[in-house]
Amino acid sequence: MLFYGGPMIDPAIKYLALVGPTASGKTALAVDLAEQLGGEIICADSRTVYAGLDIGTAKPTAAEQARVPHHLLDVVSPQETYSAQTFKVAAEAAMADIAARGRIPLLVGGTGLYVYAVVYDYQFPAGPRTQLRVELEHQSLEDLVERLWREDPDRAAEIDLQNPRRVIRALETVGQPRQRQAPLPSNVFLGGLRRPQDVMNKNIVQRTHQMVEAGLVTEVEAVVAKYDSNLEVLKSPGYAEIIDYLRGATTLPQAEELISLHTRQLVRRQLTWFKRNPDIQWFERPDELAVRAKAFLNAV
Questions:
Q1: CATH no. for residue 228?
Q2: Of the four listed, 23, 63, 159, 280, which is most buried by Cβ atoms within 10 Å?
Q3: Dist. CA 155–CA 93, nearest whole Å
């Protein structure tokens, strides 16, 4: 459960929040916009926070990072946990610093909870009930999901039910009070990039192939050699499939096909999350979104 309050960002500071599913072109758009506007990017992505996970998370390239400053990349190692609450605190600090230097903050990412935590000033509940967590961690994911649908169907509809940690966290907070989401603050432009399905499918296939060509297998080998291959973050698209390939369970072409398939499934989950928010202004073309965002910043 979450609590919602008023915005923590200084209401005199205008900023952009750009969302959208994986492979929609958010990164390229954000870099172009930040470069044109004198802005800096805060990456709102639950995977790019991990150091060493670069290719498989489609982290902004070295060239993109050289064009404009990026914040909240590579902040923890893969075996560490990183929460939306931690992200919120760090993102707000980064945005305040960016604004204090006379630059424009751009909050950009596909992890909706991270973006909303900042935009709507989510107030997170108290820590976990330790005994309950011990109980939940000994149950299967199927049983956990069934219990969450039974005890809190609204929350079950909001989170990634393939992520055991998030399902457990949701169950830990069942019954805690929940307020209605606050109105969108007037100092933020919340824009979304949502490409046509055929474009998305083509982008996903191309993106997956580029990852493999760029050395995804070598990256996964290095990560697995250093850390436990059962880490939660390594169960996400781009890593789980290559780990299976390295174990001999699939061929590399099969792994590539599975990455594309699982990425499409991830995109559907992301869009399901975002479509419930009427505040998002959606665009199919990056240039149209850019024009609207600039008009917002220039408005008196």
A1: 1.10.287.890
A2: 23
A3: 28
- Which pLDDT does position 179 carry in this prediction? 47
**Residue 3: predicted pLDDT:** 42
- 235 lies in the same domain as 164: no
Q: What is the mean pLDDT of residues 11-34?
A: 94
By the 10 Å C-beta count (0-12 exposed, 13-18 middle, 19+ buried), 56 is classed as buried
170 assigned to some structural domain: yes
Retrieve residue 58's tokens.
């489609």
- Model pLDDT for residues 274-292, shown as the tens digit of each residue: 988 999 999 999 999 999 9
Strand pairing class (188-193; 15-19) = parallel
CA angle in degrees (0–180, nearest 5) for 173-177-180: 115
Q: Are 38 and 153 in the same domain?
A: yes
What pLDDT was estimated at residue 134?
81
Residue 29 confidence (pLDDT) above 90: yes
Give the CA-trace dihedral at 169, 124, 262, 23, to 10 degrees: -170
């919340």: which residue's tokens? 190
Q: What mean pLDDT do residues 173-191 have?
A: 78
- Cβ(156)–Cβ(145) under 8 Å? yes
Q: Is residue 271 in a domain?
A: no
Number of domains in the chain: 2
Question: pLDDT tens digits for 79-120?
Answer: 998 988 899 999 999 999 999 999 999 999 999 989 999 999
- For the chain, state the CA radius of gyration: 19
Where in the sequence is the domain holding 150, given as residue range(s)?
Answer: 3-196+278-298
- pLDDT for 126 equals 61
